[in-house]
Design goal:
Elements: E1 8-13, H1 28-42, E2 47-52, H2 60-65, H3 70-94, E3 99-103, E4 112-113, H4 116-124, E5 128-132, H5 142-152, E6 157-162, E7 167-168, E8 180-181, E9 183-185, H6 186-192, H7 199-207, E10 212-216, H8 222-227, E11 234-237
Parallel strand pairs: 1-2, 1-6, 2-5, 3-4, 3-5, 6-10, 9-11
Antiparallel strand pairs: 7-8, 10-11
């Protein structure tokens, strides 16, 4: 495989990616498989930061449908992301990859508080840094947290791993003939209302000229292929 195209990446994983065939919860073999990909990316001398969602543990909309306050539902989701971060940390550490978990909500017994300069130093030392607890504020998604952290650490690109192999004009599950895009501008993606990334995250990336690559995680070496510049998925940029 060719050398890496990027020096520093922010990888955004949906929480469901850690559930595997279980559908909910944390499937340890699945987490280990993703960790093995991340280890191989690190072996390319790429600095790796991670943001993981919480959809495998908690979906805020389920609480909202039962009358829960939005802020409470969001805080529960932020706490759940830390469980996923710790699971990924454990898998990576068992493979010999040194990591740090930093959280936007302080949990000093299990993770460092988020400090931008410390995160950058740890990346420069070769550690994989996993950001938990979103932005620390309700009403923001983990996509937005990923975009924010990518900007703060001066990442070269934000990689969004999903269940589908890019951005489509319509849902490919219900529309098998839907066209997939190799490239979209930020404005085109916003106007389309793409479902794989929320508009706040898109706008933040657009305002700061951070490219986004949306790709399918399922393949065993998909992260490496993207990092090495292979044209898989959809690029969203200027």
């Amino acid at each position: 495989m060719a050398g890496a195209k990027y020096n520093r990446i922010l990888l955004k994983l949906n929480g469901e990616a850690l559930a595997g065939d279980l559908g909910r919860g944390i499937d340890v073999p699945t987490v280990e498989s993703i960790a093995a990909q991340i280890k191989r990316v690190r072996q390319l001398e790429v600095q790796v930061a991670l943001v993981i969602g919480a959809g495998n543990i908690w979906r805020g909309r389920e609480g909202l449908e039962r009358g829960m306050e939005r802020a409470t539902a969001d805080y529960m989701g932020m706490v759940a992301t830390v469980l996923n971060a710790l699971a990924m940390q454990d898998a990576l550490e068992r493979m010999g990859v040194e990591t740090r978990v930093q959280t936007a909500i302080e949990m000093r017994e299990v993770a460092e508080p988020y400090i931008r300069r410390r995160a950058v130093r740890e990346l420069e030392k070769g550690l994989v840094v996993i950001f938990g607890a979103g932005t620390g504020n309700p009403y923001f998604t983990t996509d937005t947290a990923a975009a924010l952290r990518a900007m703060e650490i001066d990442s070269d690109v934000m990689l969004k791993a999903t269940k589908v192999d890019g951005v489509y004009e319509k849902d490919p599950v219900h529309n098998p003939t839907a066209r997939r895009f190799d490239h979209l501008t930020y404005i085109e993606a916003l106007n389309m209302g793409v479902q794989v990334l929320d508009s706040t995250a898109l706008t933040l990336c657009m305002d700061n000229d951070l490219p986004i690559i949306v790709f399918k995680l399922a393949e065993v070496n998909s992260i490496e292929r993207v990092v090495c510049g292979e044209a898989i998925g959809t690029v969203i940029s200027r």
